[in-house]
């Protein structure tokens, strides 16, 4: 397709879709190309912003149903009572006003690869030259048959997508009598945020220690052992919450008795006052047609993040089939967004993408109201195997939990929120 014909098609498409946009900045001339981004999380919002920073002549349309971004990292501190929902919420205002990203507040339901359109639940389709999907994760409710209905899901929360369920789970904990039992059931890896469940039980235990000292926390882990920062978490549990947290590995949930408040395991049942069940996870629903591995995850070209299942479709973040030792984390999704943005800009300008991208990951976990631990790693593209590989000797874990790392955690959060949304 030559540039003149493409410009004509873009202008024509804009004429039928822009009328439905809310809060869009005006475009003084026909854009060089249009990129649609589905999902305003760490991957999608970063990609949208950086495409505009790298080449303002490219039109970027971000499709996101929520009015504001709510961060999963730090959301466990809302459960602990150390942060509020307002503390972890950031508006999309800067993306629109500072960077000229056009935001459509709607839900993407499908991608029509042939017509190059994203279909929406309410509005007109959004046309694109390239589309970036960053829909996060969805849940495999079929693994827990009794949890298939809305009533069950409203009673037994996951709170693994920060937002209303985060606040609702906090209210359940506040309403629980002193002496009660909070049960967190977590799935086998891979799942979003490997250290997240272990941090969550620390935060809930910190709340109980201060306000409900006779209460207990029971962590049912489907894995054989703690999957991230194991020695650091076990030390925190022993030193800070010795008589509060009980850890049970090899405890895979197979169903839930919602009315009886019981988690059904492969071997035995566990009853609690507040159940918090994380089902197995898979790529976000809008990315389902591009799943290529285990009926759960999407494979991509790590130089461009273009799907191996469809051209002009790029996929980021937690929906990906991870490369070796690559976690599903906020920092990683933010890095995916930047590498993908640079590649998309290069491709639109008929240039070659960076042949050797490098990603840095850091995951902090607050083990109390003030103390934290971290794990870090560096991942570089391996040309021979065409995948990202961890760089030997780079990264590592904390020597011990401490308050300095707690301050680093808050600084990390402020920085990544500014980098993604500011």
From TrEMBL:
Keywords attached to this entry: FAD, Flavoprotein, Oxidoreductase
PROSITE patterns named among the record's database cross-references: PROKAR_LIPOPROTEIN, TAT
Keyword check for Glycoprotein: no
E.C. number: 1.8.2.3
Residues in Flavocytochrome c sulphide dehydrogenase flavin-binding domain copies: 355-421
GO molecular function, one term: flavin adenine dinucleotide binding
Location of the FAD/NAD(P)-binding domain: 34-150
Class of this enzyme: oxidoreductase
Domain called Sulfide dehydrogenase [flavocytochrome c] flavoprotein chain central: residue spans: 166-279
Name of the protein in question: Sulfide dehydrogenase [flavocytochrome c] flavoprotein chain
Annotated organism of origin: Usitatibacter palustris
């Amino acid at each position: 397709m030559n540039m003149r014909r493409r410009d004509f098609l873009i202008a024509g498409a804009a004429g039928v879709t822009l009328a439905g946009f809310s809060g869009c900045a005006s475009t003084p001339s026909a854009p060089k190309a249009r990129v649609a981004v589905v999902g305003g999380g760490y991957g999608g919002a970063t990609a949208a912003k950086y495409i505009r920073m790298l080449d303002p002549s490219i039109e970027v349309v971000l499709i996101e149903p929520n009015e504001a971004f709510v961060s999963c990292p730090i959301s466990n501190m809302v459960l602990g009572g150390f942060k509020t929902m307002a503390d972890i919420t950031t508006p999309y205002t800067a993306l629109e006003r500072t960077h000229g990203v056009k935001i459509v507040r709607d839900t993407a339901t499908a991608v029509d690869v042939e017509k190059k359109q994203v279909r929406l639940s309410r509005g007109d389709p959004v046309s694109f030259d390239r589309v970036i999907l960053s829909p996060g994760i969805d849940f495999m409710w079929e693994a827990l048959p009794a949890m298939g209905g809305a009533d069950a899901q409203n009673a037994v929360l996951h709170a693994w997508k920060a937002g209303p369920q985060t606040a609702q789970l906090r209210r359940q904990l506040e309403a629980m009598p002193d002496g009660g039992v909070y049960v967190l059931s977590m799935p086998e890896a891979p799942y979003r945020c490997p250290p997240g469940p272990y941090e969550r039980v620390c935060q809930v235990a910190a709340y109980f220690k201060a306000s409900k000292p006779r209460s207990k926390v029971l962590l049912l882990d489907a894995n054989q052992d703690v999957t991230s920062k194991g020695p650091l978490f076990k030390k925190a549990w022993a030193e800070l919450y010795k008589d509060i947290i009980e850890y049970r590995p090899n405890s895979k949930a197979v169903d839930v008795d919602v009315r009886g408040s019981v988690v059904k395991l492969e071997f035995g049942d566990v009853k609690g006052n507040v159940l918090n069940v994380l089902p197995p996870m898979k790529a976000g629903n809008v990315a389902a047609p591009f799943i290529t591995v285990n009926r759960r995850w999407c494979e991509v070209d790590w130089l461009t993040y273009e799907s191996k299942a469809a051209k002009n479709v790029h996929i980021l973040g937690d929906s990906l089939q991870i490369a070796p030792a690559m976690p599903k984390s906020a920092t990683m999704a933010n890095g995916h967004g930047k590498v993908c943005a640079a590649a998309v800009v290069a491709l639109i300008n008929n240039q070659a993408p960076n042949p050797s991208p490098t990603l840095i990951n850091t995951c902090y976990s607050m083990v109390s109201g003030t103390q934290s631990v971290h794990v870090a790693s560096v991942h570089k593209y391996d040309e021979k195997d065409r995948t990202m590989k961890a760089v030997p000797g780079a990264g590592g874990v904390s020597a011990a939990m401490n308050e300095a790392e707690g301050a680093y955690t808050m600084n990390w959060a402020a920085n990544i929120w500014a980098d993604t949304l500011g």
